[in-house]
Request: fold
Amino acid sequence: MSTSFQAVVATKDADGKFAAALTTLSLADLPAEDVLVDVEYSTVNYKDGLAVTNSAPVVAKFPMVCGIDLAGTVVESKSPKWKPGDRVLANGYGLSERHWGAYSAKQRVNADFLVRIPDKFSSETAMAIGTAGYTSMLAVNAIRDHGVKPADGPVLVTGGAGGVGGVAIMLLKKLGYEVVASTGRPETAEYLKSLGAASTIARADLARASKPLEKETWAACVDSVGSTTLVTALAQMKYNGIVAACGLAGGFDLPGSVMPFLLRNVRLQGVDSVMAPMALRERAWADLAELIDPAALKGVYTIEPLARVPALCAAILRGEIRGRVVIDVNN
Reply:
């Protein structure tokens, strides 16, 4: 087994200067966790962008190996839960924040953070889905658990061209819902329709000051944007509708009214992927294996080398990335 390997490591010097760069590590550098994983693939999420660029105080301690998603194979395990050869993934749980993360060819991980990769998926496919797709599944399950049926009306997906939005469109389409996707990039309209969106609307139609109540339009919504977009979606929900809120790409404020909740019985359901209980995670990944055709993902993601992570993290914050980016951590 090679004892040295590459990783993207965030550091902060005595003067508080932040840097995130490709660094050579050894097995001796890794944390004292129960399971050693040969990491094969990771991915780039909005939160990775925040962490690697230091645009928000995501990283809680230094040095820190960044990356919130990993997929690979167990090499060594002190836990009875896992044995060498097991194919595993991890999403969230404080990776890249409080625990060393995924942008590394090898990582030691808490045994309780790991989920078995469904047999249907390769490590590459699992990361093409990644936290974005897993979060989408949590949001779609929240909508299903609320009782929304396809016959109840269209489902709005905000930030449709992003990772969460793209997988949400695929899942909802597979389940028989009419999906309307919002995007700030008109050139992505055909791409969104290829994923399963029946139609698209402009970001500006939602990212605006809204009335407390507007025309009842949506039976449900998957929102990864927040701020005025989320408020407008709430104002347009049908009676007893639900918004599954799972992101803040447009802002973390909520400049709205309680009127949708009081007069239309609308539910605003938060969706947390980082600390979601294991039962919800395992259900989500089982559902993803049932609903996602790996072949259908081929047009949704690209594969990039580990060295490109800093540039890609800056690009995702600028809204320049369409779909998913999978990171080959051994390249």
